[in-house]
Amino acid sequence: MHLLNRVEAIAFAARGFPWLGDLTPSSIQRWIGLELGTLLDANTPQIYGDHHCSARALSPILHVVSGNTPHAGIQSLTRGILVGGTNRVKLPRQGLPEFDHFVRLLPAELQPETSNSLQAAWMEEAEAIIVFGSDETVEFFAKHVSPRQRLLAYGHKVSLGLVLDSFDANVIEGAVRDVLVFDQLGCLSPQLFYVAGDSAEFAKGLAERFNELFLSDSAVTEWTSEIAGSLRSCREEWKFRAATEPGIQVWESPESLDWLVIHDPNPSLISNPLYRTIFVKPVPAYLQSVLSPIRRQISTIGVHPVKSNTVELATQLGAQRVCPIGRMQKPAVTWHHDGAPTLANLVRFVDVEGLA
């Protein structure tokens, strides 16, 4: 199928998935142009510096998709389709209804092969293997991928927010929105906020907004017993600490495990059980040292306000992406996932010299 037809097919299927971003034909064409120019759609090699060049899809492409963030699997598939590869998708055992729905909206010739188990032949034949999952999953594939195959691995990441100036209700609302999407399980989901100024007031504002949202929704989230146990344990630990250590404050959803906000004056990193559990801490003078253990795992840092100095700070801390608080879960179509191009990594460039 011609590139233009693939673009239009992706744009059509994406209309019912607003969290995929601005996937209109024009925005997709712009994205392709930024990463690949006209090399992908050229019938003949194009002038490229002192020679000619064309781009050809790595194919087949194997996508290994995790169950916690369906949008990542759909985004990966769209990239494989756009470059023109044959796509095969290993889905989680429990399936992925959102992914299946998206696939059904595609023309039959663009629909991938799917399986809930890893097919040995798929591993052997793939020219590119894209993996979403835990670090253990990534390590498994790293050990089994041939040097002749390209591995694109998206393992465990941490995102956080920096509030570096006075804040208002809009900043609070944005922070809550960032936490709620995908129940805080995505690589773009903030696990904590560092706040300059009154960090306890920021935490209180988050709790009040969470409470308003969940009081208006009568449905109580039903977690698995394992998740519920982890959330209860976290609550009990921090409620005990709040009763015995100065500065620690805890706000919790009444009679449910829907959300939890913890203000901790100690800026050190803390294990987070997720599922709408958010830590708020004051900004220390030595923030770079505090975050150094996770520097290579940082994905997105949401900042307020977005200015040259706050962007530079977030970049020095290790951010692969910097955005306003409230936009952490809405990356641009053209974003570089984990700091790398998403289309150019799925092609091989063919350089031609001596062509008249």
What this model shows, in words?
It is a single chain. This protein is an alpha/beta fold. It has two domains: about 5-155, Aldehyde Dehydrogenase, Chain A, domain 1 (3-Layer(aba) Sandwich), CATH 3.40.605; about 160-325, 3-Layer(aba) Sandwich (Aldehyde Dehydrogenase, Chain A, domain 2). Helix content is about 35%, strand content about 20%. It has eleven helices and 15 strands. The chain has a seven-stranded mixed beta sheet, sandwiched between helices. Strands 5-4-3-6-7 form a five-stranded parallel beta sheet, sandwiched between helices. Helix 7 links the parallel strand 8 (about 160-165) and strand 9. The model has no long low-confidence stretch (mean pLDDT about 95).
Order of helices and strands: HHEEEHEHEHEHEEHEHHEEEHEHEE
CATH architecture of the largest domain: 3-Layer(aba) Sandwich
Please state the average pLDDT score.
Answer: 95
Count of domain modules: 2
Low-pLDDT ranges: none
Within CATH, the superfamily of the largest domain carries the name Aldehyde Dehydrogenase, Chain A, domain 2
Radius of gyration: 22 Å
Number of strands: 15
Distance between the termini: 29 Å
Share of residues in strands: 15-25%
How many H/I helical runs? Answer: 11
Using brief descriptors, characterize the structure shown.
five-stranded parallel sheet; 15 strands; alpha/beta; 2 domains; 356 residues; Aldehyde Dehydrogenase, Chain A, domain 1; globular; seven-stranded mixed sheet; 35% helix; Aldehyde Dehydrogenase, Chain A, domain 2
Write the SSE topology.
Elements: H1 3-14, H2 25-36, E1 46-48, E2 51-57, E3 61-64, H3 70-83, E4 87-90, H4 97-104, E5 113-115, H5 120-125, E6 128-132, H6 135-144, E7 150-154, E8 158-163, H7 169-180, E9 190-195, H8 199-215, H9 225-244, E10 249-252, E11 260-263, E12 277-282, H10 287-291, E13 298-304, H11 308-317, E14 321-324, E15 347-352
Parallel strand pairs: 3-4, 3-6, 4-5, 6-7, 8-9, 8-13, 9-12, 11-12, 13-14
Antiparallel strand pairs: 1-2, 2-15, 10-11
Helix pairs in contact: 1-3, 7-8
